[in-house]
Structure formats: structure tokens, C-alpha cells
Amino acid sequence: MNAPLALAGPAPRPLEGMIVTQGLRAGYGDGPDILHGIDLAVASGEIVTILGPNGCGKSTLLKTIGGFVVPRAGQVLIDARDTTSVPAHLRVREHHVGFVPQTDNVFATLSVAENILLGARFLVASQRRERLAQIMKAYPSLAAKKDRRASALSGGERQLLSIARALIADPAVLLLDEPSAGLSPLMMDEVFDEIVCIRDRTGMTILMVEQNAAQALAISDRAYVLALGRVAIEQRASELLNNPELAGLYLGAH
Amino acid sequence: MSEFALHVATIAALYAMLALSLNLQAGFAGLINFGQIALFGCGTYGAALAFSHALGPLAGFALGLVLVVLVALLFARLGRNLGADYWGIATLSIGEILRTIATNEIDITGGAQGIGGIPALFDTGSPLSGRLILFAVVLAALIATWFAFRRLTQSKFGLSLRLLREEPQLAAAFGYDLDGLRRRIMLAAALPAALSGFLFAHYLTFVGPDQLFASETFVIWTMVVVGGLGSHAGAVIGAIVVQCLFALVPFAKDAFGLPSEFVAAMRLVLIGGGLIGFLLLRPQGLIPERIGGVRG
Amino acid sequence: MIPIIIDIVLRTGDIALAAVALSAGYSLVKFPNIALMQYATVGPFLAYLFASWGAPLVAAALAACIAVGLIAVLLNITVFDRLLKSGSAIAMIGSLAAGMLFTAALLVTAGPDSRHFDFPVEAPLNVFGSPVTGPQLLAVAISLAAFVLLAALLFLTDIGRCMRATATNPDLARATGIDARLVVRVIIFLSGVLAALGGIGIAVKGELNILMGQDLMLPVFAAAILGGLGNPMGAIFGALVIATAETLAATLNFGPLIGKAFLFIPANYITAASFLILVLALLFRPHGLFVNEVKRV
Ligand SMILES: Nc1ncnc2c1ncn2[C@@H]1O[C@H](COP(=O)(O)OP(=O)(O)OP(=O)(O)O)[C@@H](O)[C@H]1O
Ligand SMILES: [Mg+2]
User: Fold this and answer.
1) How far is Cα B245 from Cα B266, in angstroms, rounded to an integer?
2) Is the separation of the CB atoms in B222 and B36 below 8 Å?
3) Per the domain annotation, does A7 fall within a domain?
4) ipTM for the predicted complex
5) A179-194 as b/e, with b when 16 or more CB fall inside 10 Å?
6) Looking at the 3D structure of chain A, how many domains does it have?
7) Could you tell me if A106 lies within 8 Å of chain C, comparing CB atoms?
């Protein structure tokens, strides 16, 4: 049976949700395309995980949604507004996007407290103090080191700091690139619990890239699996682990 | 008039050697040398010091070589743990230190007055024919340098030079001896620079610290950038173009009756404007670098 | 002892502002901007021009600093940002060339002669038994005020925190909602202002001429590199080191060291002291006295 040509198929129905990408093509510099037309939608209040083998473009997708990589074609919509050409810093400020990058995720020469406060720049002063107190309470290990330079933190502590920095502003949309990388199992559980907690409390929309598939899927509503810059599977999280294709994609992609 | 043309041609050829030398460092190996004029100064002072100690030109040339090898090795050593921009600053300061020494060791170098009366290399009775022979020698030296450098950069050595320029980390990972490479490139580049200085001293018959101002290095830089970084022909063409423009400035001053500040300002505009203009609008220069071109 | 300290303080003031400017600019736009030395020359000339139109000195100086700051931003947008794409060394050569064009412009408009600001000649004040002139005090006051303001800006304000954040991690700064481009422009503006102010400080207590910037260049680079390029507050310390070395080289009697009654370093070599420190710093501590980073290849 031949797969129908894309052009001959039914017109794709416009996706809806808090985060939507349509036909996203992207790459770096004048290099080749890394993403070959990604359609993705995350509903408001949903937790969605992106899985896929190393180098398949997960981070690139997240960076394109965050505005750090300019797409060559396609659109990024946040809360139904087209943000494709909005610079990254304005997505944070005006579209309430929080972003936790995979690497280089703290300001190394600034203190821990300064790192967190930078995330709260757009709150009014009273709110900022209140949120800072909340965050410090939620992350006692950071609070204990609040005047240390971030460069003096361990890898896992940096990860926490980066998450705290993104969370303090109460973003509507949170993009997490491997939030559990480098964390101890205990800490990892805490971070995942915290993610669910935030969602339940604030209705935040969360899109994360994860390598710890089992744990990530356990707290997610849905998941996308990328392979070579395309969406290979889109499925309910609870069903994905039983999907025989998943292992094949991870193993066969190289 | 023809004498003036001969003068411009001689100076242009001497500068072309300096430009070839700088281009080998900067254009091929990515070594941003801001102290190029110091290499030239080794040649001029070698000739001058030999003369003031009543030694012959051969001794002067040898002395110049010794000096230039020392300076080149110092430059290369400094390049070991410095990025390109830091190295530029380091070479600039060494150039300035050497100029300060030349200005202040009055007993040896004659201080700011310099050393005059250095005899012409070829005493044929008539000064003009002597200068013609010298020009022929300079031209021969220039062509020899050009061919030698071309052979050098077309060999495997040239390939490792480009690697040093483009991917120093990768080159180190491939097991290239970067220090040795840098040393050899500095020595190769220093030789014609000192030779140019030596011939310059005997041509002008006068050597002084004012010939070693950092601004002279930037003149050479303009020649290389205008001609095209990484192109031997470009370096030579750049030297000719810039020297010809310089030669025209006094005429323009007289023609328009401009004040004497104009000459200095115009030189600065030519150098600075040439550099910025080419870097912005035609970074590959008049004669772009040939990609590939390695014979193996 | 007191005169030596006064000399050190005065010389530190000469070097430090331009060094801070160089370092601050480098923290966000990663190339050593040689044109800054010409900003330190153009600043006092503009102030002199405005003052000759009848503006009070303070207003003239302020206007000159702002003008130079704007020139710096403009040059960055039109020239250096573009050159930087081909590497920091190319951008540095471009900044050198831009500096030459400034010198040429000054040569044609103002000429090669030295000038000085009109101050009523007053008897020097007595500071711990040593004479210090009013303009000298003014120059030191300018530098101190500038440092305090800069430190307050960097460490106490939101924009300062944004500057430091952008300097360490520009991408993350954007991910935190910081307009990195704006921050860069502000820093470049400030570096122009600081360099101009540094030049004005030198000019009020001495003279101004078109070679000022050129003379400043190597001591300023030495100070900025000693303090760690990109670390503006370190540059102040670097300037102090350079000034101390120069002053001691000029005043100390090295005779006893080699068993002679007197041995002074010839005055002409004093300027070379900072060059030498610069070379030594580059040889052994290329990232400044404070850092123990991995060496750059
Ligand atoms: N800054 C960059 N410049 C050029 N190419 C890049 C850049 N970042 C990533 N790439 C390339 O894009 C491709 C996808 O990278 P990406 O970081 O999106 O992968 P990933 O799925 O996040 O992998 P991982 O699981 O290892 O984090 C890779 O082939 C990589 O080489
Ligand atoms: Mg990734």
C-alpha cells in the first residue's frame, strides 16, 4: 500500500493549544535543516514530553519555540498568537514563556540569589519578594547557598537553580530541556513531583525534553517522539511505553 | 622625475617584502603581528651597527639575522598561550620596547638622531647607477621571497599553516606541533623582513628609531588587507598600490595648496580608510586567496 | 613617601578610566577596541570646543562625553559588529583603522599643537606637605566619582545585573527576558563616556594633543589585561599596579642593589615599564591576576 502524497491528502486541520508549531523547518547558520516540518500542539495545562535519540533535534525544536533559533519555514504560536518573528527576550516578557536550557543554564559569575532574581525582573517589587520567599522555601539547598557564585554549584544544583529562575516569574508556558539531567534519583523525583504540582496549582503548560522516558512519561499527558527531525510518534503518554516502535526508533536511528 | 619613480619603485619593492612576510604570518597562519616593523628594524640596525663599528655590510647582514632570529623566536614563544588578539597586543608592545631601546641607548644606536652616513652598497662612481643596481637587487630579493613563500605555502607545510589558522584546537588534536609550527613560520617570515631592512638602511644611508613607529606596521597591514590576506600576489600588489598613493599625496598637497598637516592626515586616511573600507566591503582584498592550491 | 603616593594616585587616574572602558566593552563585545584610545582623545577636544563656545566646563565635559558615547555606539553598529563576524582580530584591526581616521580628523580640524583648558592659576594646595594643584584634585575626583557610580550601577541596579548577566551568558540572558542587544548598546555607550571622561581628566591637569590616545594605549591595555579583560573593576586594580610600577621605576634609587651609590632608571625608559609589564602579564597571566583559567589556544 502506498502512502498518499502529502499534497493529495486532506488539508491539515489547524492545530490548537497553548503551544502550537506548524510546518516548522529550522537549522543553524547555512547548515542543513535539522527540523523538517514539525507540527505539534500542547493544550493549556498539559504536560507533554518530547523523546528521541541524541541529535534528532529535540533541543533545536525547543529553542525554536523559545525564539533562539529562527525557523526557515512554518510558525510558532503561543496562546493563539503568532510569535514566529518575536525575539526571544520578548517571548519571555510578553508571552510569559519560561525556558530552561539543556546546557549553560546559569549565570556563572552571578550569585545564586541574583540568578533567581533575574527571572523575576518583570514582577512588581512586592510580588517579587513574595515569590522569592516561596522559591527559597521550595529549594532549601539553593537558599543555603544564596550568596555563593553560581559557578560554585554542583551540576544538579545548577539544574535546580535554572528551574527556580524560570519558575519565579510564574510563566504560562514552561519549556524544559532535560530538567532531570545530572540529578540524583531522589532529586529527580522531587523535580518531577514539583512539575506536576506546579501544573495542578497554576495550570502552567509544560513542554519538556527528557531522556528518562519512564519517569517523564509517568507524569506526562502526551508525548512526541522525534526521529531525524520529524515527528515519528505522537501518543498518549500512558500508551507510549508499550508502543513497540519506540525501542526501534531509539535503537535504529543510528 | 625618473629618479623619483626609481625611488618609489625601490621603496615599494622593499615594502612588498615586508608585506609578503606579514601576509605569511597573518594571511596564512592567522598570526596577527602588530610588531612587524620590529623585524624590519633588526635589519636596519644590523646594517647601522656594523657600519658604526667599522664592519662591512656582510657583518651587518649577519648581525641583522642574529637580531631578527631572536625577536622572531620571542614572538613565537609569546604566541604559545595567547589568542590572536592578545598576541597582537603583545607583539605591538615588544615593537615599542625595542623602539624605546633604540631611542635611548644613545651610545650604541645614536639615539633619536639615529646613525647616518651608511654607505651605498654599490659604489659605481655615479650615484644613479648605484641606485639602479640596488633596485635590481631589491627586485631580485623580492622575487626570490615570493617564490620561496609560494613553494612553502603550496607544500604540506602550507596546509598545516592553514590548519593553525582555522582550527588550532583540531590541529593540536591531530598531533601537529603548534609551537614548532609557529616558530618555523616566524623564522621564515622574519628573514625577508630583515633583508628588507638591511637593504633599506643601505639605500637610505640613514637608520633611526622614527622608522620603527608602530604606525609603520599598520601601513604594512593596509597593504596586506588591500591586496588580500592569504594571497602572495595580493601582498605585492597591495604594497605597490599603497606606495603609489603615498607618493601622490605631496603632489595633491601642492596642487591644491593645502597645509602641511594635510600630508600626515592624508596618509592616515589612506591607511585607516583603506583598512576599514576593504575589511567591510571587500574583505577578500584585490586578489582573493586561492582555496586549495596544495601540491602535496 | 607622600609625593610618591600622590604621583601613583594621579597616574592611576590617568590610566584607569580608559582601562575600565576597555574592559567593560570587552565584557560584551569580545575584541580589544583600540579606537577607545581615540575616544579618550576626541572627548577632551570636544569638551574644549564646547567650552570655547562659552559653555561652562562641566556642561562642556558632559556634552563631550555623551557625544563620544553616541559615536561609540554608532561605530559599533556600523563597523565593529560586522567585522566581529570575521573574528576578534579582524575587529581589532578595524578599530585600529577607525582610530587612525579619528587622528586624521583631529589633525585637520584642530591641528597638531597642544592646548590646555583655561583655569585660573592658583597656588597649589598643600596635601600632607606636598603640593597638589586644583586641576589635579579635580581629575582625581572625576575618576573616583566615575568608579563609584559605575560600581553602583553594576552591582546595585537591575540594568547592572543585566549587564553582568549578559556578559557571562548572552543566550541565557535572552531566555531570561533581557534585551541583550540593548544591554550591549548601553555598555558601549558607557565605555565611550568613560574613555572620554578619562581623556578629559588627563587634559584638565595637563594639556590635550592628538597623541594623547596613542600614549595611553599600551599602559591602558596593560592595566586592563592585568585586571582581566572583561572585568571592569579589575581594570582599576590593574591601573594601580601599572601606575605604581611606573612611579617606582621613576623615583627609586636602584644603586644600592648593585653596590653603587646611585642608579636611576633613565626617564625615557619609564614609559617602557608598562610595556614590559604588559608583555610579562601576557606571558604568565594572560587572563589577569585574579583568574586561574585554562589557557586559550
Ligand atoms: N548551535 C548549533 N550549531 C550548529 N549545529 C547544531 C547546533 N546545535 C545543534 N546542532 C546540530 O543539530 C542537530 C540536532 O541537535 P539538538 O541539540 O537539537 O539534538 P538533541 O535532540 O537535543 O540531542 P541531545 O539528546 O543530545 O540533546 C545535531 O546534529 C547538532 O549537530
Ligand atoms: Mg538536546
Assistant:
1) 10
2) no
3) no
4) 0.87
5) bbbebeeebbebbbeb
6) 1
7) yes
Tell me the C-alpha distance between A163 and C115, whole Å.
59
Q: Which H or E element spans position A75?
A: strand A73-78
Q: CA B183, CA B64: separation in Å to the nearest integer? A: 18
- Please tell me which residue of chain C has the smallest CA distance to B266: C104
pLDDT tens, position by position, C224-238: 988 888 888 899 999
Query: CA of C113 to nearest chain A CA: how many angstroms apart?
Result: 46
Cβ–Cβ contact C183 with A under 8 A = no
Residue range(s) defining the domain that contains residue A200? 19-250
Residue/partner pairs of A214-219 with CB below 8 Å, 24 or more apart:
A214/A241, A215/A180, A215/A188, A215/A189, A216/A49, A216/A51, A216/A180, A216/A192, A217/A49, A217/A241, A218/A192, A219/A47, A219/A192, A219/A195
- Residue C4 touches partner B, C-beta closer than 8 Å: no
Asked if residue A42 belongs to a domain, the reply is yes
Q: What separation in angstroms does the CA of B204 have from each of B48, B127, B141, C158, C197?
A: 11, 12, 17, 62, 43
Spatial distance between the Cα atoms of A22 and A10, rounded to a whole number of angstroms: 16
CA distance B118 to B60: 11
- Residue ranges of the domains in chain B? 2-212
* Mean pLDDT of all residues in A233-245: 85
C-alpha cell at C232: 571592569
Mutate to test the pocket of ligand 1, among A35, A60, A209 (most ligand atoms within 8 A of CB): A60
Residue pair B37/B95 in contact (Cβ under 8 Å)? The answer is yes
Angle at A145 between CA A141 and CA A150, to 5 degrees: 105
Do the chains contact at C168 and A68, CB–CB below 8 Å? Answer: no
0.95 exceeded by pTM? no
Contact between C87 and B168 (Cβ < 8 Å) = no
Closest residue in A to C156 (Cα–Cα)? A114
Contact of B44 with B200, CB cutoff 8 Å? yes
DSSP letter for A28, please: S
Question: Whose CA is closest to B84, among B25, B41, B36, B38?
Answer: B25
CA B43 – CA B248 distance, rounded (Å): 28
Which residues in chain B have Cβ-Cβ distances shorter than 8 Å to C276?
A: 93, 97
Exposed / middle / buried, residue A148 (Cβ in 10 Å: 0-12, 13-18, 19+): middle
Tell me the per-residue pLDDT of B185-202, one tens digit each, with 9 for 90 and over: 999 999 999 999 999 999
Please, which chains are in contact with B (at least 3 CB pairs closer than 8 A)? C
Residue C289 in grid coordinates: 591576576
Q: Convert C192-218 to b/e letters by CB count within 10 Å (16 or more is b).
A: bbbbbbbbbbbbbbbebbbebbbbbbb
Q: Is the pLDDT of residue C293 over 60?
A: no
